[in-house]
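ok here's DUF202 domain-containing protein, seq below lol
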Amino acid sequence: MAEATQRELPPVRHSLSNPSDQEALELDQSQDQPFSTLPVTITDRRTPRIVRWWRSHVSLGVPHAKCRDHLANERTFLGYLRTGQAFAILGVIIAQLMQLQHSLHPNPVLGFFVVSVPLSSVCHGSAILISILGASRFFHWQQEMSRGYALFGGWELHSVAVLTTLVIACLFCLVLAISIKED
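and the structure came out like this:
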C-alpha cells in the first residue's frame, strides 16, 4: 500500500516571462551535469593530420555553463577582424583620395600622389597583420579554455594599439609635411 501512494512527480516546468530568467534557470540546471556528458572523439595516427588538427583546435564541444567564455572569445576575434577591415578600408580611401590630389606639376619627392601607394600598402599590411594576430589569439585562448584555464590580457592587444598609433601618427605627419611644403 505504501508503494501505491509514492508517485514520481513530473519535472517542474517554470513559465518565466523574462527570457534572461529562463536562461539563468537553464544555466543552473546545466551546471549539475558533469563534463563527461560531452561527446569525445578519439583519433588515432591513421587519421590525416589536418583532421586531427581540426578536431583538436576548431571543433569543440562546450557545456552550457562555459559557453559565455567561448562566445566572448569569438566576439573578441570578430573585433580584431573589424579592426583589420577598417585598416583595409582606410588604405583604399587613402589611395583613392591622394591619387585625386594630383596637380599639374607634382612634387616628385614628397607629394600626395607619390606617398599614396606606399601609405596605402602600409594600411593593407597592417590589416593583414591585425587579422593574423586576432586568429592566433583566438586559437590560443580557445585551446587554453578547453583545458580549463582562464586567461586575461595579452600582448596582442598592446601590439595592435602600438601599430594603430604608429600608422595614424605616420599618416598625420606625412599629410602635415606635404601640406606645409605645398604652401
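fwiw The radius of gyration is 27 Å. kinda neat tbh
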